[in-house]
Fold:
Amino acid sequence: MIPDIANTKDQIEHFFRYEFKYILRADVCKHIESEISHFMRYDGHVHSELENRYHVTSLYFDNPSSSNYYEKIDGLRTRTKFRIRTYGPKFEKGLPIFLELKGRRIDRVFKHRVPILYEDLPLFLDPVEYFKLLSLYPGNWLVHRFVFEVTRKKLTPVVLVEYLRRPYTCDFDLNFRATFDSELKTARSSKLFLDEDGNWISCLAGYSILEIKLHRRIPKWFHRILQANNFRRLSISKFCKGMESCNIAMDLS
Structure:
């Protein structure tokens, strides 16, 4: 949690890493988690009432031509997209909300994010209000780039993706992280928070997405797990899955 977001909204965080993804059946997922528990532990953000998981909610931007979607589908080696991300299905006091720019340069993934105020959230979601952000976040290059990009590319919030994440960190390698994402659902939306009975569409029912995040190399013990289970790395995007499930865009290749 962020104790005083009003004092941190000018602070931009940067992440640079490699990300590999795998789709696992529920029984396989349970087995793999049992294996890695000898080397990894839950990170400090899990909730016991959610079975040591936490909510992830992301609102993605795209334009009427679905440019961001097709850049991903076409495999452009340099691409970016904006999203608003939070960690709960509904707003509660103290819940962090971030503007994020995520992208890829060749094989490396990067992410820049800045905390934003809940009171400012409507300004990020309404094209008529975008330019007001320049004075509210003076000198913040990420917010200013957001205003420039959404105006130039005619981007608006289009699809909401939500899931539960069980995250693991490694005591032996602080740069290695594994997450298991399940109960993926999506909806057409221009808002970050929807009602529980909103027009949600379930995706990948019975499966989880394993993501491993690293800076340089996969630990040998984890590499042995991958080999023993004959895992194949896949190119899967929750954003694209949401766009397809909501019939906003379609892979025609």
In short: Confidence is low (pLDDT under 50) at residues 1-6. Residues 32 and 210 are 10 Å apart (CA to CA).
